[in-house]
Amino acid sequence: MPEAAVIAFAEAPNLRRTDGTTNGVEMLVPIFREVFEQTGLTKSDIGFWCSGSSDYLAGRAFSFVSAVDAIGAFPPVMESHVEMDGAFALYEAWVKVLTGEAEIALAYGFGKSSAGDLRRVLALQLDPYVVAPLWPDSVSIAALQARLGLDENLWTKRAMAEVAVRSRAAAVSNARAQPASDELEVEELLSEPYVADPLHAHDCAPITDGAAVVVIAAADRARELCERPAWITGFEHRIDSGSLGARDLTRAPSATAAGVAAGAAAAGATVDVAELHAPFTHQELILRAALGLPDSVRISPSGGALAGNPMFAAGLARIGHAARQVMSGSASRALGHATSGPALQQNLVCVVEAH
Amino acid sequence: MTVPLNQSLDQPPSPPLSAPLNISFDYTRSLGPVLSQFMTGLAERRILGSRSADGRVYVPPAEYDPVTFAPPAELVQVGPAGTVVTWSWQPEPREGQPLDRPFAWALIRLDGADTAMLHAVDAGAKALMRAGLRVTPRWADAPAGRINDLVCFDPARDDAGDAASAAAAGAAPVPALSDQPVTMITTPILLHYQHTASAEESRYLRALGQGKIVGQRCPSCDKVYVPPRGACPTCGVPTTTDVELPDSGIVTTFCVVNVPFQGQRVPAPYVAASVLLDGADIAFQHLILGCEPDQVRMGMRVRAVWKPPAEWGTTAENISHFEPTGEPDAPYESYAHHL
What we know:
The complex is a heterodimer of chains A (355) and B (339).
Chain A: E1 4-11, H1 25-39, E2 48-52, H2 55-58, H3 63-67, E3 79-82, H4 86-98, E4 104-112, H5 118-121, H6 138-151, H7 157-171, H8 186-190, E5 194-196, E6 199-200, E7 207-218, H9 219-225, E8 230-239, H10 253-261, E9 273-275, H11 281-290, E10 298-299, E11 309-310, H12 314-327, E12 333-340, E13 346-353
Parallel strand pairs in A: 2-3, 2-4, 7-11, 9-10, 9-12
Antiparallel strand pairs in A: 1-7, 1-8, 4-7, 5-6, 8-13, 12-13
Helix pairs in contact in A: 4-12, 7-11
Chain B: E1 18-30, H1 32-43, E2 47-51, E3 57-58, E4 74-78, E5 82-90, E6 103-110, E7 117-121, E8 134-139, E9 150-155, H2 160-169, E10 184-196, H3 199-208, E11 213-217, E12 224-225, E13 241-245, E14 248-257, E15 270-277, E16 284-288, E17 301-306, E18 319-324
Antiparallel strand pairs in B: 1-10, 2-3, 2-4, 5-6, 5-8, 6-7, 8-9, 11-12, 11-13, 14-15, 14-17, 15-16, 17-18
């Protein structure tokens, strides 16, 4: 019997640019209110808070401390932070619940990606000795990965464009996604200019400001607070070498390892839905192969990261959307995935189920 | 700032104030034994890789084998020529990148290496790029022991690259490096942001531009915050109701700054104090001038000294400092809960 379940999820509108601050408060206050309305909880019911965000993105030190204002942290709360996607904050929150230190925990992630030059900011996550001083930007690095697979005939530009078309069309049903359109055509997309050959604009997630929040609860509380909790049956993360040239960029062994450990591909127990955090079209193709997802699995019905990729929140939102599929009865078993680092270096898999 | 200073506070909400924010700093890092040799090699126009116990050669060298986690068995000289494994085209180079004209990023496997390193290829035209392209390094005029000593790679014009690599291949294991190894690198970082004040902070800053101090009251706990905040830190709800405050108050607590530091604007010693404006529930920090530092005390009544209005902007700097009013001190009990 799983010991914890997702009981609520909310995400802020995924926007190309907000006029809010980099401390996320404006995006967080409304979505905290949403999950409290979904569950009937108040802030005093939350035993542990954990956030994911980045000072590099905000351009200021300890930016996550200002975000705590959104909690209303008085009397003092038990709180933690990871300089990673909120999905990894959720992992910490899950451990807190499993160890009995909290009955109900709330994880959130936020990022105002538009505040700086995102492609340059992300260069600072690279090896600081032999890579970052060259300032390679995030899109160029993803493009190196995309071409490897194209040259090796592991995928085609058409298959990549099809991912974009499907994602944008799926986003039409998600009022908080951007950009959405069910009128895109592969041929048109392929005739557009390159952003970084071989990547077109449609291959790249849009720069997005946003935030997400997920609430989890220990078994007894989950049953009491949620009609159909999304039980967490597997939650794992793994990492590949930080040296871009020393690993096979066409594969994601850490995603495979995390998926296997989380039971995502257990025999006879495949998932109905997989929400994949793939900021580039070819990365979805890598992940589907790495996680062994058959064609029958619905991929990212939320629109995925290609329809909204708020840094440090998009991975948590993927888990939230996967859980929402279970909580709404649309799926009985779903997978939420988050990535971190360049070219799918680090991968996290969370499997949620109905019971 | 992007909004006129004379805008009335009674007008509909304006967009928040925002301004460019440029951040620059240096990362100074020690290199450790493996990367120290690599950087020392670069300073001598040689490229070193690490050979693991299984014979695999990593370039740049791996401090620890990614599979076995063992330190390298030895360092070996590789290249200098290499082969493009994969590439992408950078049509609009960004600040700090190796070249200021369109170029290719590439993973390059140097001759003698089993892994590829990331660098720029100055191909001149995208059509010249392909996997399998032979490239040779272009060195900085004065290599200093950093990755940027490799300015970029150039497409090899003929078999010159092969000849150079063949010559270098005989040099493994590495000839003795300088007895003055490179042990540190400094990497300058320069980042650009558009920093945005919150809606509440913007009202406060715009009011300052008109010589007023405007805080806001939390609708939940009734506390008056100055500056106002996007969320009351106690209640987690945005502050809403504007409250205009006088520019007088008391010193709740203070310290005497005796230590000089970079960027200091007032000669030490001087007093930095928490000033609680009359009617506010939160103190903010400001300077206390106009008396000797040893005259400042808790509970002292103070008033803002404004700069001349011609110098005002949407900034807290419109208030130069606070100075004593000479009124009787506030009793301790009246501010004890603000400490």
